[in-house]
Amino acid sequence: MPDHFLEIYRNRANYYDRLVAREDQRGNLFRALNDIRLLDGLRVVEFGAGTARLTRLLSSQACSVHSFDIEPSMLKVAATNMRETGMTNWSLAIGDNRRMPVVESCADLVIEGWSFAHVREWQPNRWQEDIDKMLAEMQRIVKPGGTVVLVETMGTGFRNPQAPTSELAQLYAYWQAAHDLSYRWIRTDFQFASLQEAEELMRDFFGDELTNAVLARGKTIVPECTGIWWKHVD
Prior knowledge:
The chain is α/β, with parallel strands linked by helices. About 45% of the residues lie in helices and about 25% in strands.
């Protein structure tokens, strides 16, 4: 499954971390998650933690956060980030989204961020099967009365939400129809220190077309829409 995102996750985790650190400077995601399920005192399991973007938010309020990712390079940066917070209520470990190394019914909140949607491109012939396995894992891990949450992009450079590709639109429609997930969207705009930084951090990840458009506008704030899908489990 060759893919430039996969190459970045495996070999350029520090670069990726610098990019995502510029997203959601207003803290809209943290507020939205608390609107869906108040984080106070929750036991959380996180899929696809990356460099701990969500882990940092969750650990500031939850009782515990056990986070997993398949890429060791991402977890190495995540561990550095988490140690710098001074928090001690977290753990990081290798984990496949389809087979998490945790017992069933152990979490009040099970969450993924910017991880599941890659399956649509990386596994084009079996993406539904893999998505079903991932969501089944979430259901296995969450306690009765708990909440499952998925966080994914709904468009970079757009002020209103739209799936970046037809494949992602198909995926998002599938998990709402097949898995009965509720949905809302928020703005999580990027705020860069300068146009030079915007170019440095955006071009390799988002490509030339979007980066050139941002530079032509001359704005250091780049609109980003983020979708949140969730389900409260009986």
